[in-house]
């Protein structure tokens, strides 16, 4: 997920968020600012972290009024510190007031994910294992949250259900066995699609490897079980470790020898980065 891809698909989600916040009018703003007046407001960091989502922040104001000017002093991926002046927004004061919360919601959420991901990614230094996100994203926020993972130094797993085959426990239950699920996936899916299988014990590991799975996800296994699983697979498939992976425990997993470690916490548990729009005044 890169900047261009994210922005090409962003407008419909941003417009939806604005409609959620302004169903008919901004009563507060219209009460104190009934007519056009040009003004400016400062975007200020209130915490240290990795900034992410500046193009989305800017786009919120542009969709309300294309003449709004936004000037940044940082780029996505830069580290900001408490009290840094991140940017300045200039335009119709009514637009600055009405767009403030939606713009900050995106920027704080995305910056929080980028910051948390960066903290986890630093624990992978010197390891050949890659850090992945998951589909555990906020509805209608996936394109922004997965972009934030990339900015923070992580990698994207599949974007959605159309992106690849991942046979989880309930798919295997529906098919009847790991072997049967893999056989059916190979028959149905285009040959360019890799087939990944989630397994929960060593018996399933052997069955998935023997069935020709391309990637085997070791779900909620102990470290000793994962080491034995890698020995059983013996290079026949790529390996992924998953299940309750957080910043607190990931360091224990990077030396096992798996190819990938996926963590839903990157998107579902990252706290926001505190940012604020302050010092609004007419010019």
List keywords for this structure.
41% helix; Aldehyde Oxidoreductase, domain 3; 283 residues; TIM Barrel; alpha/beta; 12 strands; six-stranded parallel sheet; 2 domains; four-stranded antiparallel sheet
Question: Could you explain how this protein is built, in words?
Answer:
The protein is of the alpha/beta class and about 280 residues long. The protein folds into 2 domains: about 5-120 and about 270-280, Aldehyde Oxidoreductase, domain 3 (Alpha-Beta Complex), CATH 3.90.1170.20; about 125-270, TIM Barrel (Alpha-Beta Barrel). The chain contains 11 helices and 12 strands. α10 links the parallel β9 (about 215-220) and β10 (about 240). α5 (about 95-120) crosses α6 and α7 (about 170-175) crosses α8.
In short:
The protein is an alpha/beta fold and 283 residues long. It has helices at 3-8, 11-21, 27-32, 54-64, 93-121, 142-151, 169-175, 178-188, 202-211, 223-233, 265-268, and strands at 38-45, 49-50, 69-72, 79-80, 85-92, 130-132, 165-167, 195-199, 215-219, 238-242, 260-262, 275-282.
SSE topology sketch:
Layout: H1 3-8, H2 11-21, H3 27-32, E1 38-45, E2 49-50, H4 54-64, E3 69-72, E4 79-80, E5 85-92, H5 93-121, E6 130-132, H6 142-151, E7 165-167, H7 169-175, H8 178-188, E8 195-199, H9 202-211, E9 215-219, H10 223-233, E10 238-242, E11 260-262, H11 265-268, E12 275-282
Parallel strand pairs: 6-11, 7-8, 8-9, 9-10, 10-11
Antiparallel strand pairs: 1-5, 1-12, 2-4, 3-5
Helix pairs in contact: 2-4, 4-5, 5-6, 7-8, 8-9, 9-10
């Amino acid at each position: 997920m890169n900047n261009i891809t994210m922005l090409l698909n962003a407008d419909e989600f941003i417009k939806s968020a604005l409609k959620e916040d302004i169903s008919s009018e901004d009563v507060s703003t219209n009460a104190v600012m009934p007519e056009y007046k040009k003004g400016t407001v400062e975007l200020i960091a209130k915490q240290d972290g990795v900034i992410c989502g500046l193009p989305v922040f800017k786009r919120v104001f542009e969709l309300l009024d294309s003449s709004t000017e936004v000037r940044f002093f940082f780029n996505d991926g830069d580290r900001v510190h408490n009290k840094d002046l991140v940017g300045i927004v200039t335009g119709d004061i009514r637009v600055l007031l009405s767009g403030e919360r939606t713009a900050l919601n995106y920027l704080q959420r995305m910056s929080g994910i980028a910051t948390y991901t960066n903290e986890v990614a630093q624990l992978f230094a010197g390891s050949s294992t890659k850090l992945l996100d998951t589909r555990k994203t906020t509805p209608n926020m996936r394109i922004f949250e997965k972009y934030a993972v990339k900015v923070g130094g992580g990698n994207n797993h599949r974007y959605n259900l159309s992106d690849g085959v991942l046979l989880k426990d309930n798919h295997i239950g529906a098919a009847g066995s790991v072997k049967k699920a893999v056989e059916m996936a190979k028959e149905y899916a285009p040959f360019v699609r890799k087939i990944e299988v989630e397994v929960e014990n060593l018996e399933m590991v052997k069955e998935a490897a023997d069935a020709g799975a391309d990637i085997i996800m070791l779900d909620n296994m102990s470290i000793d079980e994962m080491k034995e699983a890698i020995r059983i697979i013996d290079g026949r498939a790529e390996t992924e470790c998953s299940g309750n992976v957080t910043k607190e425990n990931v360091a224990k997993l990077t030396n096992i020898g798996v190819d990938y470690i996926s963590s839903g916490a990157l998107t579902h548990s990252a706290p926001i980065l505190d940012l604020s729009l302050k010092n609004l005044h007419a010019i």
